[in-house]
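Structure tokens please, single chain.
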Amino acid sequence: MIYTCGFFHVNKVPNPIAISLTMPDIVHIPVYELLTPPERLESKRNLTVAEYAKIYTKDVLASLTIEAVSAGVCRLLGLDAFDNFTLVCWDREPRVKEALFSHRHLVSRWLREKGVDCIEWFESSRKP
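Here you go.
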């Protein structure tokens, strides 16, 4: 299983890897840069979820393959399999009007569309 979460949970999740351009100063985890939002989104303000999703999908996800993402994440985390890790970013995108949206939700959906199990991490979803 692959998980996603915000930085608030980073110390509770398996094998965290950031997919954001920045992270809190107290967090020190690897960054998988191919899933970070494009810098041109940083200058945009007040986007709707649909507008943000369109740009992120076109500029990031459309150019990736599941094989490339799997190989890159496994290499950065030293994993033998594309499993049991957590994609971490901010709890919401400051450029998007709607609260509680993050590009990690787009990544999670993309992974599921590629046949990979990916869910938001919660205490109750943790493996025993």
